[in-house]
User: Fold these one by one.
Assistant:
Number 1:
Amino acid sequence: MAHITPAQGLPDILAPGLQVVFCGLNPGVDAAAAGHHFLGRGNRFWPVVHLAGFTPHLVAPQDDRSVLAFGLGLTAAVGRPTSRADQVGTDEFAQAAAGLLHKLAWVRPEWVAFLGKAAYAAMTGKRQVDWGEQPERFGGARVWILPNPSGLNRGYSKERLVDAYAEFRRAQQTSR
């Protein structure tokens, strides 16, 4: 069952006992208006998670709630929708930490995968964050930092994103 947080611009798709919760930085304006995660035209999340092996088929953004059946959940670090993630400041991410920790305490996922470094760095107060698994847990979950799949992230081609997400998928599967 989806868990909806009223203060958020997009409903969470969470349930207790998930393997992975993907935590985006914040919802895009179009995604929030439509009520579906990763809806933006240039967003590569859905093809990337499929090609990396998290879903058995390509999930349409309108079917985002179906990811629960695959042991996956979706949330955003900050609920406020923006056109670009760089419109969310470090202080806003830091202030959102308590809310995210509360969600993770309810869901108790094995992993939380932050889609980009900004939210995790601000929420933990770390100045330097590397890609991949982090040494500390967050809200009881193991942490993996992935590149943001937004089409605005020109530093990562779709192929490089798939490689990064597939590396996480392998680590996640071997940790069971």
Note: The helical segments are 29-34, 45-51, 90-107, 118-124, 158-174.
Number 2:
Amino acid sequence: MQFRKGSVDDVATLWALRTRCVRETCSSHYPPEVIAPWSASPPPAQYQRLLGQGGCVVAEDAQGTLLGFGVFDTEGNEVDALFVDPDRGGQGIGQALMQRLLAMADPAREVVLSASLNAVPFYRRQGFIAGAEEAYPHPSGVALASVRMHRTL
């Protein structure tokens, strides 16, 4: 496994993986009427900015096949996204990406994220503490049930 910084040129490829993850992984915790608009939404405008600022880490195999990616927003000290190819789960890819995202964080502030319901156990294993359940106002127009989480470095 190798890692590199994601760039704005990667947005379409990364978003395709994210869409697949929403359809295949998140569907275990969300009904079809939420999955459909969520998975059909385009990349948010902030992706261009965050990837342009170097806030994205891409994991690939030796052949350059995308295994997963993570996006970190340094302004909010927030993990914005972390997705792993559903066929490659449980192989340490997500944990390795998380370590690289946390290396971008300001250690003087808590790192925060909004976790999809299916991802809460993963983030707990990474040292995050569950806070309040929330309805994340997704740009697709759906209110995604999620859990606000935080951790110190």
Note: The mean pLDDT is 95.
Number 3:
Amino acid sequence: MTDPVQAQLDAYNARDIDAFMRFWAEDCGYYAFPSTLLARGAEEIRARHVERFREPDLHGRLVSRIALGDLVVDHEIVTRNFEEGLGEVEVVAIYEIRDGLIANAWFKMGEKRLEGRAEIVRSGSAPTRRPYIGRRALSVVEASYCPSARGCSVSTMKASRNTSSSNASFSPSMTAMIISATTGSPDCPMTSSRRWSKS
């Protein structure tokens, strides 16, 4: 009973619209819980997800799943690229399975939560505030340039190739430093007077 639900979630995370649609019945109903019709039939569901699959960070993480009779209930946390920036939303999804396909689906959405931003600085210069979007983004308080990577977790990278933000407009030759989620060594001159928190 859970096979089509897991298969469509895998296709959702791969952003593969053809694979995704294999598990939805032609006359499937797609609802906002409890009864607001969002899409009726495979073509409308497909059109809805073609647009969604353009989001580069789209990902549904399964938290829990139960199955009872012809119903499968998933609790998921979905990472989305909202207009306001990268964030996540909790979703309870109820799937009715018939003949190995999803015949109806209902979705209860939580409040969306936007992630913070991390400070990206140019090596050898004063800090430059740039947007950085990624699944391990940080909320930064009073960040400044770290003159030494010794004793703290700082990764050096080519920002134009290695950051996931489409807004990080560095040239290919510019080296950037991004403070990772594990920064916090007492030997780091930055962390001695600044505070960091995960989003």
Note: Confidence is low (pLDDT under 50) at residues 117-199.
